[in-house]
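Please, structure for the following, as tokens.
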Amino acid sequence: MKEQLKLLIEVQRHDARIQELDGMLKAWPTKLEALRSDLTKVESMLNKERTQLEETEAWRKRLDEEMSTEESTLQKAKQRSAQVKNVKEMMASERELQANRSKREERGAELEKLVTAVAAAKKSVAQHEADLTALREHVTSEENAARGKMGEIETQIAAARKQREGAVAHVRPDVMKKYSSIRHRGGLAMVPVHNGTCRGCNMNIPPQLFNKLQRGTTIELCDFCNRMIYWDKLLEETDGAPSDPVAKTEKLEKPV
């Protein structure tokens, strides 16, 4: 039974590694989706900015046309003013000239503001276009990197699964079935008992059960967390390495 326990620990180590690699593999599409979402938002904002710039330029052109019309109206009013014959006509002409001058000045001030606004908007659009180009290049670079990293991870997963299959082939079917059933619930399926305490739930196991674990002739379950348990000293390795799957899992080397 000691060998079966060792094999189960090895299977569990591979399962933990595969789970870790699966998580890393799934993280890449999530990261890329976030980048693409940011890219879409920036594109949308830039399109709105371009539309606003087009509308502002169109309004500036209309003001230009109105200014030309008002200038023509003012010149005609001046011509009529030169032809007045009495005081009444002169006063009326003066009021017309003043009204046309005021309107032209208002249009001129408004046009000046629009010209400034258009210049600022063009500068902003140009900067945001450059930012968008840089972001697109970054997204493309990340997509290329992701394909390489995901390929590496998939290779590591395949290797871990192959190693797992090699260990499973030597585990008794009934033992493997019990292990798989417990692991299906999530987390570790088997944990050591240290100083009479289950390391899965940190509860003290009954003395009678602890005696069975010390003999190492059967595979027992913790009465509290229903995990497979074993006496940690039973599988203590001669080189002093821990037999604790929790400790071993923490030491798994992550791919660069």
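The beta strands are 190-194, 197-198, 220-221, 228-231. The longest helix spans residues 87-168.
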